[in-house]
């Protein structure tokens, strides 16, 4: 009798269980969605943590590099003058021994009167070559002397500067404007002739790159004449070594 009275309540219990199960499914789905979102959020957080660490590391590296450059820069400037001076001395010695590198690069004596032009002008006036050579030496001494001062002071845009006076009678007679201008530019204090590696084609000093390239070309040509494969390989190796050295030397001379 007791069991029969409980039977009518069974359907209500099943419905309640189904509702609970359905609610649990919804809760599980929501939990899974929340979990996935948490995973994505965690990945994003980890990514930004890593990026922040990388940025901080780069900042530290840049600060360290900046500190290093500050420490190195001062002695580098001190070394620059010494390197340039040694480079000039070495290159002049080398080119004095090997001669000009074709018609373009060679040693020019800045401030020297062009001998050919002077002799041509003298001979055209009926002066012998011997007397013309003596006159040239006399004029050269006059240029190097400090008594003759063919300069004038001009003012332009409020700035005063000293320039060569092209109307100076002695200067016009000598026609040594270019020689004196070179001497004044490169050694105005001593008024002496200055030997310099010169690019005759462009009318300027030779750069480090041009000088090294010229030397390497002469080495390669010399090795080709000997027609020795072993020496060719050696010369190519030296060419590479010199160019690596050149890059470092050029950096020092520019910075």
TrEMBL record:
<dbReference type="InterPro" id="IPR005379">
    <property type="entry name" value="FDM1-5/IDN2_XH"/>
</dbReference>
<protein>
    <submittedName>
        <fullName>Factor of DNA methylation 4-like</fullName>
    </submittedName>
</protein>
<dbReference type="InterPro" id="IPR045177">
    <property type="entry name" value="FDM1-5/IDN2"/>
</dbReference>
<dbReference type="Pfam" id="PF03469">
    <property type="entry name" value="XH"/>
</dbReference>
<feature type="domain" description="Factor of DNA methylation 1-5/IDN2">
    <location>
        <begin position="108"/>
        <end position="223"/>
    </location>
</feature>
<dbReference type="GO" id="GO:0080188">
    <property type="term" value="P:gene silencing by siRNA-directed DNA methylation"/>
</dbReference>
């Amino acid at each position: 009798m007791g069991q029969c009275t409980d039977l009518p309540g069974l359907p209500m219990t099943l419905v309640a269980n189904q509702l609970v199960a359905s609610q649990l499914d919804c809760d599980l789905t929501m939990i899974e969605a929340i979990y996935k979102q948490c995973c994505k959020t965690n990945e994003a957080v980890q990514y930004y943590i890593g990026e922040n660490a990388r940025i901080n590391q780069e900042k530290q590296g840049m600060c360290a590099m900046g500190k290093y450059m500050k420490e190195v820069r001062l002695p580098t400037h001190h070394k620059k003058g010494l390197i340039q001076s040694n480079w000039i001395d070495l290159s002049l010695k080398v080119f004095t021994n090997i001669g000009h590198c074709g018609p373009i690069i060679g040693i020019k004596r800045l401030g020297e009167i062009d001998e050919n032009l002077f002799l041509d002008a003298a001979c055209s006036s009926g002066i012998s070559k011997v007397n013309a050579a003596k006159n040239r030496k006399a004029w050269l001494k006059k240029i190097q002397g400090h008594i003759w001062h063919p300069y004038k002071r001009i003012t332009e845009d409020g700035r005063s500067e000293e320039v060569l006076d092209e109307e100076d009678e002695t200067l016009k007679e000598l026609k040594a404007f270019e020689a004196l201008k070179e001497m004044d530019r490169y050694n105005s204090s001593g008024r002496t002739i200055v030997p310099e590696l010169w690019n005759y084609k462009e009318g300027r000093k030779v750069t480090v790159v041009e000088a090294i390239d010229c030397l390497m070309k002469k080495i390669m040509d010399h090795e080709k004449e000997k027609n020795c494969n072993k020496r060719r390989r050696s010369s190519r190796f030296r060419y590479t070594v010199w160019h690596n050295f050149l890059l470092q030397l050029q950096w020092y001379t520019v910075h």
